[in-house]
Design brief:
Number of helices of chain B: 11
Shape of chain B: globular
Helix content of chain A: 25-40%
Number of strands of chain B: 18
Mean pLDDT of chain B: 86
Oligomer: heterodimer
Largest sheet of chain A: 6 strands, parallel
Order of helices and strands of chain B: EEEEEHEEHEEEHEHHEEEHHEEHEHEHH
Radius of gyration of chain A: 22 Å
Strand content of chain A: 15-25%
Low-confidence stretches of chain B: 389-400
Number of strands of chain A: 12
Low-confidence stretches of chain A: 316-373, 397-401
Order of helices and strands of chain A: EHEHEHHHEHEHEHHHEHEHEEHHHEEH
Largest sheet of chain B: 5 strands, mixed
Number of helices of chain A: 16
Radius of gyration of chain B: 23 Å
Distance between the termini of chain B: 35 Å
Strand content of chain B: 25-35%
Chain lengths: 435, 421
């Protein structure tokens, strides 16, 4: 049974961690928090708390200065190292752009990985109205973090607004982001839970979620009733959260977790996988499957999508035909939905209960999971090997043949982990028209 | 023209052009250009020499041209250098004032200088410039000469501009083999600044960016001195390479397209124009919109890298007098607008240089660096006693020499002040 901890860093991280502890009491993992702001730390209802920079800051915040935050975290090094010793899986929740979230998170990730924990970072990116400087700081922090942690998924506060509508109360928008975090945590824990029919392990998750990417997200979709496979794929395509993916063909790796009742049929899985693979032809697929004894006519699909590893983060994964040069693509008005009423959070994400398997501390599955030869298992094993479709796709030039051309004979110019000799338009992948 | 022995040859081994300028000082002390040479360059990439024979041939040609036009033989050279490996680093030395009455003496100056020079650079670093900033008393007051003032603690910040010894050494060694004496090595960013900024700008805070083919070099000046200088190994060649990649043309064709149609700015709403390629056997056309997008992205990124560097130093908000662009890249249409946008300050191209009496053919932004090198060499006499391939810690020697000469100058000044005659 894995030891799981949720660590909220900085103002945003603390709030989200407190929200999750308060609203999801059925989850049996410990909530931790660390921040430099004493009053925020005090009001956060968490199991364990650390004060960053207690000696240096007089209990105030870091003032949005990541350098300061980095220094202060060193003071806590030994305490945190002890805390991480017995932990298997840490979820770091942080809001980027400020001091603690941006500055300390990478250092803390490294401390945790040094103690043998698997570190997953879920980070929130600032609203557009918070300004360009904050956004730039957030991007820099994200680049650093994505290398320090085993996996990183960004969430955009701005996306919550565009999905819910600009007139949504701020409280609801922030709660929505918190719920997405919860969904992500559950999804990730569930994907690698044991026992499973088709196993996924942390290494698989790492290969999809590690490092920088053009785009990455985690999404869950549930469906019940008769034609749920088709509806699952349909809902995925029409989901407001995934509306930023206009060019699914550019996705290059995806982790698929299918959860269904004991009566899950091969046809169902077949339909789901076919639906996914036809919309993401170039993606490497990591399939995983679980059976839930308490579900009969219900299936849940969890997707961890990543695209463009090693490149600069983008807001949205749009096809070149609709792109603009500016990084900050505002949400297009036609995608806004009418404001949703309060309490939507629980309605919208219904069906997200804790699975009995990972609730039990003894690690014994309460469901009867059948192993051994079965048509389903055979089918699943046949799709286990990652598929990679290689097609030359204009207008994008293939990244696996970086031609230095003119600069073959000289040392590469490296800045912030990027090789500036590679053409800018390739690294940023933004052109309005095909060439 | 009176023949004098006090002339220098300024030389720049560029990626696209080699330039040489023979110059001396006129009786009033102003820079006077005697001869010029300009040739196409081959064998250089991003500021580094990658093909020695080709570069040597080019250097011979350009020096011969300068010698011919000036009727002088080149002997001492002020070499303008650059490369991605050049960076700036501000080092602060601190020192508690010795006397109990807190009066600062020359002994304090000597000790704080010693502390300021005790720095550790990467091995094989060549220190090109040491620019003392102001003395700081008790962390508050900044002065140029603190002797006689009272303070508890004295700090001295110095800007160290350093480069990789081997990469700079290749050029020096090459010139030595041609029996030319490299009298002074000047970093391109600092050289260009000396020919394009005015006194006022120097005081207020100005950023000078020299956009070359191999590198983009910049220096930030404020309060009358260079506060920071560094280079980015991205230049016009990168723009051309990007275009060659994007438009699927050869490097040379891309270069021609860049020069004919390039622009630093585009708008999504402009209608596309297609132009045919020069090659006779080709019927292809290329999209100008794509050309301009690709070019703008690269130029914008280069400015952003420079801005990032300045932000790390905390200098980005001090560019009160704006940005000055020079070098071949400053000829790109609308580049001032792009620079203004990135730096948030007005930007201007130095279409003419701040040197009096220049003939029109060299009074242009491309000559800012090589003229600057020679101007700088005259303004800072004293040879770079740098032996390439020698001890790694020669930075100490340079700093010590600077401190000794500074003290000497101060002594002379004090003597002069106390003996008005």
């Amino acid at each position: 049974m894995k030891v799981i901890r949720i660590l909220g860093l900085g103002g945003a991280g603390l709030k989200i961690a407190s929200y999750l502890k308060r609203n999801h009491p059925q989850d049996l993992w410990e909530y931790w928090g660390a921040d430099s702001d004493e009053s925020a730390l005090e009001s956060a209802q968490l199991d364990r708390k650390w004060s960053i920079g207690a000696k240096s800051s007089r209990g105030l915040g870091s003032g949005g200065d990541p350098e300061l935050a980095r220094e202060w975290v060193e003071e806590l090094a030994s305490d945190l190292n002890d805390a991480f010793k017995e932990v298997d899986l840490v979820f770091i929740l942080a809001g980027l752009g400020g001091g603690i979230g941006g500055g300390a998170a990478a250092r803390i990730s490294r401390m945790a990985t040094a103690q043998g924990a698997f570190v997953f970072v879920l980070c929130a990116l600032p609203f557009d109205c918070e300004g360009a400087r904050r956004s730039r700081q957030a991007r820099d922090a994200m680049r650093e973090l994505s290398l320090a942690a085993d996996g990183l998924i960004p969430f955009q506060n701005q996306r919550a607004l565009s999905v819910l509508g600009a007139d949504t109360p701020l409280k609801d928008a922030l709660e929505c982001v918190s719920e997405k975090f919860h969904e992500a945590i559950h999804g990730l824990v569930g994907l690698q839970a044991r026992p499973a029919m088709m196993e996924l392990d942390l290494a698989d998750i790492r290969s999809v979620a590690h490092g920088s990417a053009t785009f990455r997200t985690l999404h869950c979709e549930t469906a019940e009733g008769e034609d749920r496979p088709a509806r699952l794929v349909e809902n995925l395509k029409n989901s407001a959260w995934l509306s930023s993916i206009e060019d699914w063909g550019r996705i290059d790796s995806v982790l698929v977790g299918i959860e269904g009742g004991e009566s899950i049929t091969m046809r169902e899985i077949d339909l789901i996988m076919e639906g996914l693979q036809s919309s993401m032809p170039k993606a490497r697929v990591f399939p995983g499957a679980h059976m839930r004894s308490d579900w009969s006519e219900k299936t849940r699909l969890t997707l961890l999508i990543s695209c463009g590893s090693g490149l600069a983060w983008e807001d949205d994964l749009v096809s070149p035909a609709q792109n603009e040069i500016s990084h900050w693509i505002p949400a297009s008005p036609k995608k806004q939905q009418p404001p949703v009423s309060e309490g939507w959070a629980r309605q919208a994400l219904s069906g997200l209960e804790a699975s009995p398997e990972w609730r039990s501390e003894e690690g014994v599955s309460t469901g009867a999971v059948t192993r051994g030869s079965s048509p389903i298992l055979e089918f699943m094993t046949s799709i286990k090997s990652p598929t990679k479709v290689e097609t030359m796709d204009q207008p994008l030039l293939p990244m696996d043949i970086p031609s230095h051309g003119r600069f073959e004979k000289s040392e590469p110019t490296l800045r912030m982990g990027e090789d500036l000799d590679i053409p800018t338009f390739i690294r940023r992948r933004k052109l309005t028209d095909p060439i | 023209m009176p023949r004098n022995s006090g002339y220098l040859l300024g030389l720049e081994i560029g990626v696209r052009y080699l330039r040489a300028v023979m110059a001396d000082l006129d009786p009033v002390g102003r820079l006077r250009v005697l001869g010029v040479g300009e040739e196409d360059s081959e064998g250089c990439r991003k500021g580094d020499i990658v093909d020695v024979p080709k570069v040597e041939a080019g250097i011979r040609k350009v020096i011969a041209e300068a010698e011919q036009t000036s009727d002088l033989e080149a002997r001492r050279i002020a070499l303008c250098f650059s490369g991605d490996h050049v960076s700036g680093f501000t080092h602060v030395g601190s020192h508690p004032v010795l006397s109990s009455s807190h009066v600062i003496t020359s002994e304090d100056i000597r000790l704080v200088t010693r502390n300021a020079r005790t720095l550790s650079l990467p091995p094989e670093s060549y220190v090109a410039h040491i620019v003392p900033q102001l003395f700081c008393l008790d962390g508050k007051t900044h002065v140029a000469n603190p002797i006689g003032m009272l303070a508890k603690r004295l700090d001295l910040a110095t800007l160290i501009v350093y480069a990789n010894q081997h990469r700079v050494g290749t050029a020096v060694h090459l010139l030595k083999n041609m029996h030319l004496d490299v009298h002074r090595l000047v970093f391109k960013g600092i050289a260009s600044a000396s020919t394009v900024v005015t006194r006022d700008q120097e005081e207020l805070g100005v950023l000078v960016i020299d956009l070359g083919a191999g590198t983009s070099d910049f220096s930030f000046l404020a309060q009358g001195k260079v506060k920071y200088a560094a280079a980015v190994g991205v230049g016009g060649d990168h723009v051309t390479n990007d275009l060659a990649c994007a438009l699927k043309v050869s490097f040379d064709e891309a270069e021609k397209l860049k020069l004919d149609y390039g622009r630093a700015g585009w708008s999504p709403s402009e209608t596309d124009e297609r132009v045919p390629l020069e090659a006779v056997d080709s019927e292809r056309t290329v999209s100008l919109k794509i050309l301009r997008q690709v070019m703008t992205m690269r130029l914008e990124e280069t400015f952003e890298v420079i801005l990032g560097d300045l932000q790390k130093q905390g200098l980005d908000s001090l560019i009160h007098a704006g940005v000055i662009l020079c070098g071949g890249g400053s000829r790109v249409p609308h580049i001032e607008d792009l620079a203004s946008r990135v730096f948030g300050r007005p930007a201007r191209v130095a279409r003419t240089l701040n040197v009096q009496g220049l003939a029109p053919e060299i009074n242009r932004p491309e000559f800012a660096s090589v003229l600057g090198a020679v101007k700088f060499a005259f303004a800072h006499p004293g040879k770079n006693k740098e032996s390439f391939g020698g001890k790694a810690n020669s930075s100490f020697q340079i700093a010590a020499k600077w401190a000794a000469s500074w003290l000497q100058r101060l002594k002379k000044k004090n003597q002069h002040d106390s003996n008005p005659s």
